[in-house]
Design brief:
The structure is a single chain. Strand 5 and strand 6 form a beta hairpin. This protein has one domain: P-loop containing nucleotide triphosphate hydrolases (Rossmann fold). It is an alpha/beta fold and 224 residues long. It starts with 6 loop residues before the first strand and ends with a helix. A 5-stranded parallel β-sheet has the order 2-3-1-4-8, sandwiched between helices. A 3-stranded antiparallel β-sheet has the order 6-5-7. The protein contains 9 helices and 8 strands. The structure holds adenosine monophosphate (AMP). The site of adenosine monophosphate has 16 residues, from helix 2 and helix 3.
């Protein structure tokens, strides 16, 4: 049996299903999930300095400056030695500068696979318009498929709300930034040979099974 889990990055537009799939895939391999958006939302709820700085960018749909995001990820990944044991990164890297920083601090522990969770824009727009999230654990719901107890999370009982940054202006700005800043990241990993694609427009269980097949094939092909 392998002594470590895969080192995996999930890339996709807002609403592509990264959060949902990252939780499932991290659980199935027993590795940590690091979601920069969740870390920022937690910092905002706690009113920390990082949270106050990030909120101004997040609510407008802008990206948080590279330096702050890189510091945050490095603290969680490198200082805790987790890059060796495997991880799922959800929402990072989102810019070329972040991708280069990640390559640098991973060093020899390079990524096993970077998954482009591909979903057409018209589908993500529908998903985001009805998206609701648990304030406590980050679980995702949709108005077409709400929690059983209306505004309370099925998983942890936390309050289920609309994200403050899911306004029309902010969503359009995030999609624009995806094209400008994140598509070059996909190119970066295509060039390095780490990129794989999963059709994220399918039903969630099907996406998960395709994702598992891709990760297993790339991971088992490498010398652990
Ligand atoms: P998410 O939950 O991944 O959609 O992230 C929510 C928001 O947090 C984004 O719209 C950005 O404002 C900010 N954010 C999360 N990850 C990053 C990142 N890697 N780089 C810059 N900003 C980020």
């Amino acid at each position: 049996m392998s002594s470590r889990g895969p080192r995996l990055v999930l890339i996709g537009k807002q609403g592509a299903g990264k959060g949902t799939q990252a939780v499932r895939v991290a659980e199935s391999f027993g590795v940590m999930r690091l979601a920069t958006g969740d870390l920022f939302r937690a910092a905002i709820n706690e009113g920390t300095e990082i949270g106050i700085e990030a909120a101004a960018f997040i609510n407008r749909g802008e990206l948080v400056p590279d330096e702050s995001v890189i510091d945050l990820v490095e603290t969680h990944l490198v200082l805790e030695d987790r890059q060796k044991r495997g991880f799922v990164l959800d929402g990072f890297p989102r810019t070329q500068v972040q991708a280069e920083a990640l390559d640098k601090f991973l060093g020899d522990f390079s990524l096993d696979v970077v998954v482009d969770l591909d979903v057409p824009t018209e589908i993500v727009l529908h998903r985001i318009a009805g998206r609701r999230v648990c304030e406590d654990c980050g679980a995702n719901f949709h108005v077409d498929n709400p929690p059983k107890k209306n505004a309370f999370c099925d998983l942890c009982g936390g309050e289920v709300v609309q994200r403050a940054d899911d306004t029309e202006d902010s969503v359009m700005r995030r999609l624009e930034l995806y094209e400008i800043e994140t598509l070059p990241v996909i190119q970066h990993y295509r060039r390095s040979g780490a990129l794989g694609r999963v059709d994220g427009s399918q039903e969630a269980d099907r996406v998960f099974s395709d994702l598992l097949d891709l990760v297993k094939s790339r991971f088992s092909a490498r010398d652990h």
